[in-house]
């Protein structure tokens, strides 16, 4: 599904640049609750107008978007079955919405269910670091990095350059390894974090001591941004 621009209604005035699809708004932006002219979901007299963000006590401003954030909410809509390998990957949301302070974030965990250590490659791909969705609208980046992206919008200003060496990780028998990844919009789009359904997948390769691939499988999951 191609991402679509989020539409926001206002009773008076013009749409501001901060009202682009997926962008978060600051505390004093339209719809933030600091005005009383009907732009924040009231009719000017403090009565609920029924518009998104009108304070209906549901805790959600619109769909999956928590009230007061302005950014798209994120849901994990599906995950593949575990690959036929000695390892089991999994993902979970640690930040399910974009705010002015941070983009959405996931934790990727890999568990070695075998009775011997396992070497995996490629070491960044298996944790979805620098992995884009299949349509290349979104990408995951290591959470401990600093990137050129506007706060609240979280669209990268420039492509991220990475080294080409083949990295590996080793997980001891019965142990798990996890990493945090943040979600960014890729450069070139005129919106911020787009809304829609997005599929992410990567390849897990089991490597021998001589770095030969002994087995491999593709695993992935889908996200919904609303």
Q: Could you please describe the fold and organization of this structure?
A:
The chain is mostly beta strands. The protein has a domain at 74-225: Sandwich (Immunoglobulin-like). The chain has no helices and 11 strands. It has strands spanning 60-62, 65-66, 74-79, 87-95, 105-112, 118-121, 138-142, 168-171, 176-185, 196-207, 213-225. The strands form 3 sheets. The protein has a 5-stranded antiparallel beta sheet, with no helix packed on it. A hairpin with a 5-residue loop joins β10 and β11. The two termini are 13 Å apart.
Average per-residue pLDDT, rounded, comes to: 78
N-C termini distance: 13 Å
Report the radius of gyration as a whole number of Å.
21 Å
Identify the strand order in the major beta sheet: 3-11-10-6-8
* Annotation, overall tally of beta strands: 11
- Annotated CATH architecture of the domain at 74-225: Sandwich
CATH level 1 class label of the domain at 74-225: Mainly Beta
The sequence of SSEs as H and E is EEEEEEEEEEE
Percent strand equals 25-35%
Shape: globular
The quaternary state of the protein chains shown equals: single chain
Class by helix and strand content?
mainly beta
Low-confidence runs (pLDDT<50, min 5 residues)?
Answer: 1-69
Number of helices: 0
């Amino acid at each position: 599904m191609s991402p679509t621009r989020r539409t926001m209604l206002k009773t008076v005035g013009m749409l501001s640049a901060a009202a682009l699809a997926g962008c978060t708004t600051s505390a004093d932006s339209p719809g933030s609750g600091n005005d009383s002219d009907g732009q924040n979901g009231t009719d000017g007299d403090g009565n609920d107008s029924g518009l998104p963000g009108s304070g209906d006590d549901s805790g959600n401003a619109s769909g999956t978007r928590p009230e007061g954030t302005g950014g798209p909410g994120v849901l994990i809509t599906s995950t593949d079955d575990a690959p036929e390998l000695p390892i089991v990957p999994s993902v979970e949301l640690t930040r399910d919405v974009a705010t002015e302070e941070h983009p959405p974030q996931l934790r990727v965990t890999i568990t070695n269910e075998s009775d011997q250590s396992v070497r995996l490659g490629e070491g960044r791909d298996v944790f979805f670091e620098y992995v884009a969705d299949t349509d290349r609208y979104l990408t995951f980046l290591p959470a401990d990095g600093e990137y050129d992206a506007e706060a609240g919008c979280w669209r990268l200003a420039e492509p991220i350059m990475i080294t080409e060496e083949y990295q590996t990780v080793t997980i001891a028998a019965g142990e798990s390894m996890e990493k945090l990844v943040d979600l960014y919009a890729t450069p070139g789009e005129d919106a911020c974090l787009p809304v829609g359904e997005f599929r992410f997948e990567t390849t897990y390769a089991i490597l021998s001591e001589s770095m030969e691939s002994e087995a491999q499988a593709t695993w992935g999951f889908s996200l919904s941004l609303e």
